[in-house]
Design a protein that fits this description.
Structural class of chain A: mainly alpha
Shape of chain B: globular
Oligomer: heterodimer
Number of helices of chain B: 8
CATH architecture of one domain in chain B: 3-Layer(aba) Sandwich
Radius of gyration of chain B: 18 Å
Radius of gyration of chain A: 20 Å
Largest interface: A-B, 22 and 29 residues
Largest sheet of chain B: 6 strands, mixed
Helix content of chain A: over 70%
Shape of chain A: globular
Number of strands of chain A: 4
CATH class of chain A: Mainly Alpha
Strand content of chain A: under 5%
Distance between the termini of chain A: 29 Å
Largest sheet of chain A: 2 strands, antiparallel
Strand order of the largest sheet of chain B: 6-7-8-3-9-10
CATH topology of one domain in chain B: Rossmann fold
Distance between the termini of chain B: 26 Å
CATH superfamily of one domain in chain B: P-loop containing nucleotide triphosphate hydrolases
Number of strands of chain B: 12
Order of helices and strands of chain A: HHHHEEHEEHHHHHHHHH
Strand order of the largest sheet of chain A: 1-2
Number of helices of chain A: 14
Structural class of chain B: alpha/beta
CATH architecture of chain A: Orthogonal Bundle
CATH superfamily of chain A: ABC transporter involved in vitamin B12 uptake, BtuC
Number of domains of chain A: 1
Chain lengths: 315, 269
């Protein structure tokens, strides 16, 4: 509950944070440039941060439950790295738009789709999908994609190389509202579908056999969970680049501090992940203003030490 | 092989036994682990599945529980092949407690026990009825006092009692337990088997894998002895002293006698 309130509060307050001062009264009255800054720069960016962070944290909690692996992130199973590879190729080949869609988005989605198909193919044996099969296929594909990113990166020219480095850190930018609304609709729909299955994720978090003898359809759940988590992560990576740590830290914090029950863990992760990413982005806009620190760098700078502290406290 | 218990089973359910294992076999990479195992189990039976290491006890239990697919034969639950059962409907009839469950689970004991209610409840949240069933099961297994504690903070014995409670909360008619007394001290082992015997007296059937032959002889009604993947003996525990030929499947250095209470007791010679 508290996390949902924080989510709404962040949506209302964070657009006010930024390098240039903003007069709400003037923006409300429709006076430029305040209105445009608020509406087209700050608000859309904050919303992207909120839903992007929410999607990453939810995907992280989903994969942590499915794989029974505390270090699982939305990026563990390769799809996001596949998306990153697609995006990097799009930058390297200079595809600016593909059928009206920005080339990076199209490349990311194509890369994610290819990896998804490969991993499902590799992890499925006799129409059954096992945790260990999925983990192995995913981690292997992840490494291959990461290696190919390095390869492409080393072959391109200076300016493309800079663009790739910058994109790989992960950051939020203003997006236009039609694209944002499609993205939010996709995230919200998938998230509702995932959270509705929370009891089944709980069963899987204890064990495949445990879930099976309690009447859950394990193979179908694994495939569905992998598809859902991958879609959440891949669409987010397409828009923001691979922002790290949200998908790892947020579910961890909720699990240790609030509950391991996915009926609580998943909605809490969704809302707090959104708040954390939007807040990190707001901090990034301010600390070195007028320069911007990418949100991906802030999440890693805050998330890394916090995770170590959290784990040490439990030891 | 004694067939009195089979006769009882037939009389009770007229051919549709609660569990009917017909020529069950399992092999992996061309190696036969289990072959041609046939037996029936009826409500009111407490079956001990015994044998030396690697005899195929856990494999047989996994086959009945559906955790492995049969290579040969068939397993029928209430007259219907188990693969034709919808998973949730089957989970309301039989429950399987594996030998090892991951310890580093962040769920609380109560959350874990409530998972046993999954096949019974269709809602997203736990109903009051589910909570009552979970509390009752924890009470019976003597673990209600640590309902709020995380599983990862419990000792091996405490954890085993929570897992047993989760099985009972599922309200099954057939309990498949792989070494249910693991990690339990002597007093808790006795309590555990006593509790299972009460479940059986209420009309459930129970098949327990155990290495403790005397525990099995004291509490169970029937012994199934596996050796090298074959069912080599199937006898009521009451007759275990009269014909002690089944002992040779364990060790040549064993003999059986009676306790003052009249139960069979195996000792080293």
């Amino acid at each position: 509950m508290g996390s949902a309130v924080a989510f709404v509060a962040a949506a209302l307050l964070l657009p006010l944070a930024g390098p240039s001062s903003l007069d709400l009264g003037r923006a409300w009255a429709g006076e430029e440039p305040d209105r445009s800054i608020l509406l087209h720069l700050r608000l859309s960016r904050t919303l992207l941060g909120l839903f992007g962070g929410a999607a990453l944290a939810l995907a992280g909690s989903l994969f942590q439950s499915m794989l029974r692996e505390a270090l699982a992130t939305p990026y563990t199973l390769g799809v996001s790295t596949g998306a990153a590879l697609g995006a990097v190729l799009a930058i390297a080949f200079g595809w600016h738009t593909v059928i009206g869609v920005p080339g990076i988005w199209a490349g990311a989605l194509a890369g994610a789709g290819a990896v998804l198909w490969l991993v499902v193919l590799a992890a499925t044996k006799q129409r059954q999908m096992s945790t260990i099969g999925l983990l192995l296929a995913g981690v292997a594909t992840n490494s291959v994609c990461a290696a190919m990113i390095l390869l492409v990166h080393s072959l391109v020219g200076m300016s493309d190389s800079f663009a790739i480095s910058r994109w790989l850190i992960g950051s939020l930018d203003a997006v236009d509202y039609p694209a944002l609304s499609v993205y939010v609709a996709v995230i919200v729909t998938i998230s509702i579908l995932v959270v509705r299955q929370a009891r089944q994720w709980n069963l899987l978090a204890v064990g495949d056999a445990w879930a099976a003898t309690r009447g859950a359809a394990v193979a179908r759940l694994m495939l569905g969970g992998y598809l859902a988590g991958s879609l959440l992560a891949a669409t987010t990576v397409a828009l923001t680049g691979p922002i790290g740590f949200i998908g790892l830290v947020v579910p961890h914090v909720v699990r240790t501090r609030v509950s391991a029950d996915d009926r609580v863990l998943m909605p809490c992760s969704f809302f707090l992940g959104g708040v954390l990413l939007a807040a990190c982005d707001a901090i990034g806009r301010m600390v070195l203003a007028p320069a911007e620190v990418p949100a991906g760098a802030i999440t890693a700078l805050i998330g890394g030490p916090y995770l170590v502290w959290l784990v040490r406290r439990r030891m | 092989m004694a067939s009195d218990s089979d006769a009882v089973a037939d009389a009770l359910v007229e051919g549709a036994a609660l569990l009917d294992v017909r020529g069950a076999g399992w092999q992996i990479d061309g190696r036969r682990i289990l072959g041609d195992v046939s037996f029936r189990a009826a409500p009111g039976e407490f079956v001990a599945l015994v044998g030396r290491n690697g005899a195929g006890k856990s494999t047989l239990l996994d086959l009945i529980g559906g955790l492995r697919g049969l290579s040969d034969g068939d397993i029928l639950v209430e007259g219907r092949p188990r693969r034709e059962w919808p998973a949730r409907a089957l989970a309301r009839i039989l429950v399987h407690l594996p030998q090892m469950t991951r310890a580093e689970v962040s769920f609380s004991a109560e959350e874990l026990v409530l998972m046993g209610r999954y096949p019974h409840a269709s809602g997203w949240m736990d109903s009051a009825e589910d909570r009552a069933a979970a509390a009752a099961a924890m009470e019976r297994c003597g673990c209600l006092q640590f309902r709020a504690r995380r599983l990862s903070t419990l000792s091996g014995g405490e954890r085993q009692r929570v897992l047993l409670a989760a099985c009972l909360a599922q309200a099954p008619r057939l309990l498949l337990l792989d070494e249910p007394a693991t990690f339990l001290d002597v007093e808790q082992q006795l309590q555990c088997f006593q509790m299972l015997r009460e479940e059986v007296a209420r009309g459930a059937a129970c098949i327990a894998v155990t290495h403790d032959i005397n525990l099995a002889l004291t509490f169970c009604s029937r012994l199934l002895v596996l050796s090298d993947g074959r069912l080599v003996a199937d006898l009521p525990t009451d007759t275990a002293v009269d014909d002690s030929s089944w002992l040779r499947w364990f060790s040549p250095n064993l003999a059986v006698t009676r306790t003052p209470a009249g139960r069979p007791w195996v000792y080293y010679t």
